[in-house]
UniProtKB/TrEMBL annotation:
The keyword DNA damage does not apply. PANTHER family: AMIDOHYDROLASE-RELATED DOMAIN-CONTAINING PROTEIN, AMINOHYDROLASE SSNA-RELATED. It holds the Pfam family Amidohydro_1. Keywords: Hydrolase. This is 8-oxoguanine deaminase. GO terms for molecular function: 8-oxoguanine deaminase activity. Residues 1-20 are annotated as: Disordered. It comes from Kocuria carniphila. Its EC number is 3.5.4.32. InterPro entries: Amidohydro-rel, Metal-dep_hydrolase_composite, Metal_Hydrolase, MTA/SAH_deaminase. Residues 73-439 form the Amidohydrolase-related domain.
Amino acid sequence: MTLERPTQDPTTQPNGSLLWIKDPAGIHTSSRDNAYASRGLVVDSGTGVITEMVGAGSEPTRYDRVFDAAAHVVLPGLINTHHHFYQTLTRAWAPVADAELFPWLQGLYPVWARLTPDALESAVTVAVAELLLSGCTTAADHHYVFPAGMEESVDIEVDVVQRLGARAMLTRGSMSLGQDDGGLPPQSTVQDHDTILADSQRVVEKYHQGGEDARIRVALAPCSPFSVTRELMRDTAALATDLDVRLHTHLAETIDEEDFCRERFGLRTVDYLESVGWLSSRTWLGHAIHLDDSEIARLGAAGVGVAHCATSNMRLGSGTCRALELEEAGSPVGLGVDGSASNDGSNMIEEVRAALNIQRLSAGPSRVPVSRALNWATCGSAGALGWDNIGVLEPGARADLAMFTRDELRFAGSHDPVASLVLCGAHRADRVMVDGRWVVEGGSLPGVDLERVIARQGEQARLLMRDESNPAVLG
């Protein structure tokens, strides 16, 4: 493992906060010019920002310590724009392993209705740990299941994210349209309108950080057109404007959803979105697959962001997001792993490869170079979340880095260091930095007993799956 070592340069302070990530094997900055960073970058571990990019033939203006990055490929920390942390408890469940979205949801809603605080804490720990180990430094989670006893779900998520040292956009999701009123989810998983809005305001006021050094931000996120009322969508948009936070929901994921909107509201999905006050740059959408040309143009003109969830879309057979057209129309496009029960994983560097390959199917390699897929996972994702100072490596940006080695068999015979991470299938980062501090070292999470985490998750998953009428059923 490559270790930090004090430099002997007389202009430096061995105990200072400025760390030169020196001479990486490759670097992708997500900026307009990668060349100027060929000798690496300097991060200030005190302020958590990048202070300098170091070009060919140069040395930093000032640095205190050196990290020899000759064995590493350096990327901006990857950013996950759409996830459901709690779903790590229901991965690869046999009854829905081969289902499309609506039957998949209908099979899992009763299971998720049995969530407990201990189960959620375990699930979030697993999800965030898995993301960090894949090079992801910022994650947006969409938590919308609040059965009785789970009123402080967002609070649990905040505690875990802070403990593991990640950055997060946590959304206060909601479901208010149960089966009794024509919605998809069972009544045991929905809340009433006033309860949802009151708690939405509570978590924003308690946890949302608006400054440049923010580690936790909060958005408001009614689940989908088929699980919330029109009134809740409209009132949530108004509350988000009052509180100056962002909005998130699922939209146009499947044809079933399109049919539901037509039957219930008499509108296509984007028309519905506009009718409830969501067609604005405050909004980013999960999936956004089934759109026509005019709808793509409208989303782009409004600056609505999109979370492209390639693996989940393939897994559920939902379709393919028209990511290139959305981006070219003006929508910020990022990547999301989606729920760990529709992806069955929480790995962001693997998601880059999935997005690259599925988009090349229709657009071809020349329109979807490796750099474009990496930008979706970094600066594109930051744009979708409206988070200005992450997702790039440049002076003044937060010092969020993902560093990969290429010493596995899968890289043997590979050439371009950056392209090889995507094309050869990198899956685990060697080092990850958030705000100038290492949160992954040597492919491990310092201070985290992963064996214990895995064992606890297995126990919680078994408890969640136990059917009261047949305690032996695990799925």
